[in-house]
Amino acid sequence: MSRKAFLSANEAAAHGVRLAKPEIVSAYPITPQTTLVEKIADFIADGESDIDYIMVESEHSAMAAAFGASLMGARTFTASSSQGLLYMAEMLHYASGTRVPIVMVDANRATAAPWNIYGDQRDTMSQRDAGWIMLFAESGQEALDMILQAYKIAEDPEIMTPVMVNLDGFTLTHTYDVVEIPDQEEVDAFLPPYKTDYKLDPEHPLTMAATTGPDFHTENRAQQQLAMEAAKAKIQEVSDEFAKMFGRDYHGLVEEYRCDDAEVALVATGSSAGTTRIIVDELREEGKKVGMIKIRSFRPFPKEYFHSVIDKFKAVGVIDRSISFGAEGTIFQEVKGAMYGSDAKLGNYIVGLGGRDVSRALIKEMFDKLFNMVNGGEEEEVQFLGLRW
Amino acid sequence: MNKPKVNKDLKLPTNFDELMIGGGNGVGVLATVNSGFRTFHPVFDYNKCVRCMFCWIYCPEGCIDKTTVDPESGKIMLEVDMDYCKGCGVCANECPTKCISMVKDGDDDE
Questions:
Q1: Is residue A389, in this structure, part of any structural domain at all?
Q2: In chain A, whose CA is at the least distance from the CA of B27?
Q3: What number is the average pLDDT over the span B10-29?
Q4: Of A208, A229, A246, at which residue does a domain stop?
Q5: What DSSP line would sit under A139-187, residue for residue?
Q6: Where is the domain boundary, A195, A227, A246?
Q7: Do A165 and A33 share a structural domain?
Q8: Among A140, A146, A163, B99, which has the minimal tally of Cβ within 10 Å of its Cβ?
Q9: Which of B13, B23, B32 sits opposite A97 (nearest CB)?
Q10: Which residues span the domain enclosing A303?
Q11: CA distances from B75 to A59, A339, B68 (A)
Q12: Residue A349 placed within a domain
């Protein structure tokens, strides 16, 4: 029987890792990821898990150790955040390019300078092109469930691509909520042990991550892109299978919330999706036709979904907790690209940087701005909202 | 010389299904030579060579071989795998007896 517990998203994710039974966890602590890797160490100390925990001297080594373990065919986990993620950036590319199915959590946090330990998405978005599948969880429950789904996606022979599960720093990682912890038997039925021939084995020797010159490198990259495209269907399939077994449906790459007859929709990720959900309900009470589009998978990007709704909404806003300086919010650029040809008004709202609250008032303001555009008003396309002046 | 040679029978992948993921391949796969950018190559004077093995240990490409023994003298005859020598000249520079000379590729001795 599953049981309920009052957990932070970090602790919930740690339960997800315990239930996924990786052979190796290698990690280096960093705020706000620390309580996640501490909880895994607790499980081991308490005899609830027999993971081999490698304590490393840096994040680069954390990912290098996870990479090595994964090359040996071990299910592997690591986690980091912000500066730590940047420090392991080289190995992120190694892991994805070598196609080892590591699962990691990134506790999304601002990047220095200016120094800041609080939540935003500039760390993970700086690694957008590292070749990892990037998923965003909205709650502690989704964090736990997403870890289990992540392994199933990553280790699929057609995919073989590492997965980064993103949790908003503090807003999720340190916020407590009731989480249902599934039984080990249930999880084992959903997620069997990792078995692969793609590993270092003296009986069947293999060269992995070799040099490829101009003659094959483009084909290697095209092959990665094929796997990412195939991951779209796999993420949906795994989400559906999870829903059937555990009763919690996350709708694959994208969740539409009250979008059926919506005129205006906001695109949200992570914890801001939770707040947006509440505001959508409030505005619906007032009779306003609003909805939310929650992106669960940023890589692969649900391009097909956004293309399918180019005629559906009168206005679409995108909440970004990161910005590509000199361009636009990171998610907005992609939504806009995927909605090429749409007559819908588009707005991009840069909020929640360095831990600033993405408040209900801010979300309401976004909807107001979208309705203003629908009613013929002019709005700057990209706006920082909630600025002090 | 006891070194793997370029595998001329190697069948290169012809589609994505045959292409191993992650830049991987089998073992003993030497698909191509890697010496096309060489200008000079080392030539040994075996009369001056004292078999100190400095060249063997310093060669950054590991392409000096010490497995051939002259049956008459019983001495090791160091050989260079010209498929992989990049012509850097480290061997000649390190050689204490200066028995290695760097000769321009294409000159008469080849």
A1: no
A2: A206
A3: 86
A4: A246
A5: SHHHHHHHHHHHHHHHTSTTT---EEEEEETTTTTT-EEEEEE--HHHH
A6: A246
A7: yes
A8: B99
A9: B23
A10: 254-384
A11: 51, 75, 9
A12: yes
The identity of residue A231, as a single letter, is: A
Q: Would you say A132 and A162 are in contact if contact means Cβ atoms under 8 Å apart?
A: yes
SS3 B50: coil
Condensed to tens digits (0 to 9), the pLDDT of residues A176-232 reads: 999 999 999 999 999 999 999 999 999 998 889 888 888 899 999 999 999 999 999
| SS3 at position B103 | strand
Is A354's pLDDT higher than 90?
Answer: yes
User: Are A234 and A350 contained in the same domain?
Assistant: no
Number of separate domains in chain A: 2
Q: Is the ipTM of this complex over 0.85?
A: no
**pLDDT tops 90 at residue A365:** yes
Residue A13 lies in a domain: yes
If asked whether residues A268 and A162 sit together in one domain, one would say no
Residue A305 has pLDDT above 90, yes or no: yes
Pair A165, A105 in one domain: yes
Q: Are residues A219 and A76 in the same domain?
A: yes
For residue A165, being part of any structural domain is answered with yes
Q: Do B22 and A98 touch (CB under 8 A)?
A: yes
CA distance A289 to A253: 23
Claim to verify: residue A104 and residue A225 sit in the same structural domain: yes
Amino acid identity, position A216: F
- For residue B21, give the nearest of A213, A216, A223 by CB distance: A223
Q: Which pTM was predicted? A: 0.91
CA distance B24 to chain A (A): 4
| pLDDT for position B108 | 59
